[in-house]
Hints:
Helix content is 43%, strand content 23%. By secondary structure, the protein is of the alpha/beta class. The protein is globular. The model has no long low-confidence stretch (mean pLDDT 95). The structure holds the ligand C=C(O[C@@H]1C=C(C(=O)O)C=C[C@H]1O)C(=O)O. It is an enzyme of class 4 (lyase). One of its GO terms (biological process) is menaquinone biosynthetic process. Belongs to the MqnA/MqnD family. MqnA subfamily.
Amino acid sequence: xxxxFIFAGAPYSNSAPxxxxxxxxxxxxxxxxxxxxxxxxxxxxxxxxxxxxxVAHLFAHPELTMLKGLGVAADGPVRSVLLKCNKRMGHIKTxxxxxxxxxxxxxxELLLKxxxxxxxEMHDFQSLENPDAAVVIGDRALCADPGPxxxxxxxxxxxxxxxxxxxxxxxxxxxxFPDIEAVTDIVHxxxxxxxxxxxxxxxxxxxxxxxxxIFWLDYLDHSIHYKLDKQDLExxxxxxxxxxxSIKY
Length: 249
Ligand SMILES: C=C(O[C@@H]1C=C(C(=O)O)C=C[C@H]1O)C(=O)O
């Protein structure tokens, strides 16, 4: 058994209930944050043993294994994964990806092509000066004003299309990691403690980013959920299937 477990989370408030208490539940744990899109590289390079990776990267890397039971999910509007529209639906041709995201960029492309039946091109954020719409995730999306032609909440659109919740990110390890049981135990204990501390976490983000404690509590405790049930797994599997058949990502 290793004497140190390195965990990597995302720098968003929705990571906090999963990540905040990790070091308290086990003295072997060290934690750092990185953009979700970079976490798969951290895992593969051995900079992290356990990371909260975008599910799109989990699907693309069969050498990774998901830890069971927890993730960052939404059943209906998530409020922090948005397509911010400069033009109205029907006029959207170019879409900027959020450079920090993997899952939401793929979800936006899937929904625009399949659900909204638009002919669109996805572009890296920097390569496009004024996209017709842009994917924005995390606290930046949650706290921003709506785009000139409004916002589309991507978890809400997914729910309308499929009737299912959507899972954005899950804890994962390299499949040959020897202590899967030990770290699974740690993430569940940390979430149990994080859940108890939800109000304290909400207060901290209200102090840091503005808004009331109730606003953050509502987001972390209602818009997002962390315990994955059968429906969540159904949503996850359907997304995997849709990505493999409908779009390249
Ligand atoms: C719901 C969210 O989910 C995030 C979205 C991710 C993605 O698009 O790849 C990755 C990690 C999640 O934290 C959010 O941060 O707003």
